[in-house]
Amino acid sequence: MPEEKIVIKTKHGELSLEQLAEAQHGMAHLMKEVGERYHVLYYAAKALNWKLAQYQLNQVIALFRIGSTLRPKYTEDLNDFVKSHFQPLTDAIRKQNWKEFEDAYKKSVHESDKFHEKYGYGYIHYVLPKNPPEMYKLAPD
Fold this sequence. Notes:
2 strands; mainly alpha; single chain; Four Helix Bundle (Hemerythrin (Met), subunit A)
């Protein structure tokens, strides 16, 4: 018996699950947003706006979960990165310890280059922008 394909009907026509899967953004799209949020994360913590810093980190972790779902070959490394590098950031934010945060942040950026290299993207290196993002009020309330 042939396998029946599932088709989703939209106002624009019908799409197969395969077409929907192919339309999902890949890691490049997700990593662009990670970089933007990592920029805000750093400067929020530097301004001692720990709530905004934790929010941005939570969003980065959520993006890693999406990446794990969409690209299962990265799941183990993404989960390990969350534990080994995002947990220390969370701990520093919870303690409101800027020095500890900055050290963990720099280490996480350095370690991300190793994953880029591992997957053939060694030419990608995150560089923290020299200026704080202008689209957020960084000072705590």
